[in-house]
Write a structure and sequence with these properties.
Elements lengths: L4 E6 L6 H16 L5 E6 L4 H14 L2 E3 L4 H14 L3 E3 L5 H5 L5 E3 L9 H10 L4 E5 L3 H16 L4 E4 L14 E5 L2 H12 L7 E4 L7 H4 L7 E4 L15 H12 L5 H20 L4 H9 L3 E3 L2 E3 L14 E6 L2 E4 L3
Parallel strand pairs: 1-2, 1-3, 3-4, 4-5, 6-7, 6-8, 8-9, 9-10
Antiparallel strand pairs: 10-13, 11-12, 13-14
Amino acid sequence: MTPLTIGACLSLSGKHARFGKQAQLGLEIWHTSNSAVNLVIQDDQSDPAVLRASLRELADRCDILLGPYSTQLMRKAGDVAAELDRLVWNHGGSGDDVEAAHPGHVVSVLTPTSRYAEPFLRHLAETEALPVRIVCGKGSFGRQVAAGAEVIAHSLGIDTVRLGPGDDLPRTTGGAWALLCTGAFEEDIETIKWARSLPTPPQAVCAIAAGVREFGQALHDPHGIYGVGQWFPGTGDPAEMGIGEPDFLAAYQDRAGALPDYPAVQAVAAATIAAHCATAAGDTGRDALWAAAASLETTTLFGAFKIDPHTGTQLGHRPVLIRWESGGPTAVRG
């Protein structure tokens, strides 16, 4: 085979830039040990229209297409892949509807949103079993996380009350309670600040936003708050494929001066698996790539990989629960 060209649309500007830039750096580090592969990255500006145009342009000159960060943008990327009869590797949009929307055209490495809250709720059930107030954000991502959380909570015997982005938390609750925030980063920060000001603040707090290190800079005293993420250092199995976690973390810290959050690692996992499938298949056509991915069960530095062979939804990967301590976030062992 001639050298592969991998193209990625990432948000290097706009509202998703904090995560898109991490994914960019992760891919650049991955590329240093895969120099036979060409890597092309375009800025989608966190804009669906720009993403659509950029992905179509990349499709004309790239063998492998990596999707963008964010469920909203990945939804558009899936549409483009289906229109062009191409396959896009999804490392940044965990929405259930996104992962299953275009069978044969989207392969996802991420745990779907409906399972995001599972580690926190299981931890709660094993400790205090407090009733949970779930505050979802404005977008479909938050609604899907909240809906999945309700199903999981009820299966564990935990009572829930679901509130929308415009609903106020009650000032009195009649007892101890827990808060689960499933909004965008800024929405979760504001919800937690408001909850802390109540006469009866939550006894336990978990936020999707708390799964990244920037949370500790955005919220005063995050101590004790739980976060859910797709990955956290030291929580996965050894990588059977691609760069190992210790080497990647050392290279990333050397370049960025800090450890990565999961957006960087999940992008590397997608590139690793995509390149493997193209090599194993000896072909970069959609059918060949899909067949190779559907038959693959492995681990990367991101964790387990196994997809539903009919939909492309990720089955093998599991989210990680963390808790903010005085020294920063630490993994909560199940």
